[in-house]
Amino acid sequence: MNDTIAAISTTLGVGAISIIRVSGKNAISIVNQIFQGKDLEQVETHTIHYGHILEKEEIIDEVLVTVMKSPKTFTTEDIVEINCHGGISTTNKVLELVLNHGARLAEPGEFTKRAFLNGRIDLTQAESVMDLIESKNESKRKVAIQGLNGKIRNMIQTLRQEILELLASIEVNIDYPEYEDAIVMTNEKVKPEIKKIKEKLQKIIEESENGKILTNGIKTVIIGKPNVGKSSILNRLLKEEKAIVTEVEGTTRDTVEGSITIQGVALNIIDTAGIRETSDVVEKIGVEKSLKLIEEADLIILVLNHNEELTEEDKKILNACQEKKTIVVVNKNDLERKINIEEINYQNIVYTNTLESEGIDSLKEKIIELFHMNELEQNDNIYLTNVRQISLAKEANQILEEVEEGIKQEIPVDMVEIDIKRAWEKLGEIIGETYTEELIDQLFSQFCLGK
Fold this sequence. Notes:
The chain is of the alpha/beta class. It is built from 15 helices and 13 strands.
């Protein structure tokens, strides 16, 4: 990280302003070579200066240049931001001049990566930067801000500190057995401490699993046989004609997607091809995709016909969704009832038809109830925000369960200590206290270029 990097930090296109960000030990001197105005190497830190960007004698643009000197910057390095007029040609030209005078084009997420590697932020804060950029609803923005402010880091550090204090007590007994003031740490004394830490970690995991829907939304899949009204339900949820609706079976041969927000939570809805035996090659691919989506979904909206008895295909679909959060929608309830509701072994059932909106409102209310959205909206708890963080927390919890099992089997306390330390290290991976270069490269490669 001894070189100086540069990138466009705003969306490239026509706009009032574009920003080129430059970071590194030579950032100020590089920009100073192409800037006509004050000598940037002599100005105070965190100041803005008016002038022009020049290529030899030619004025390229009229700009404002912000100078921020190390260490009080996002990357902890010297940073210069050139605010130029928005426009593809002008912005690219200014960036080209910066690169020609000694900077290197930044890799995706490299500014944030440097902030992490230089100790300015931890991994959870880095991930929250991207969450904030990608936030499409108010709930996701709030959760991202909590992470960016270091609340996730503080939560994990507090838990790690409790484990560290327990490890220190065990170490004193092992290394200094003659130290009379130390409490003798036996398995019986370790056991309640581990139980207390594990309960706190389990609570974090449970709340994070629920809170994850605030950041990622709810992946919702509408399934059922052909011609039960799946596409109509999608259109009515979205309040637009997203999917083609006809009386011909198999009209939807591939997935159709849309998104709405309920109680501040994004509902990412996928209308699937009708599930049935078919010889049509294209439709068959659509059916296979529908079945695969059942496994990936957070919520299944399973549509049945009010005016038909349950078929073998209906029963197969019902069985396939047993392990998922599922709402059964009995559609076309304006027609004669032929379905036997007692055959549907599901608690969450709503009735809809194409004539009234009442059924769609009931469906939304059932979704709010199923995912406890009212509680989520009012709850200011701090959540782990992504799969990586939650997976590491679960691994740490599994290790603590192994510690409890080891205590039951009366394994010596110095052996138990090894597993306790493993849990401490695993929690450290969440905030980036320990990491691999491969993880860091993969994580930051998902960022936009100028961040």
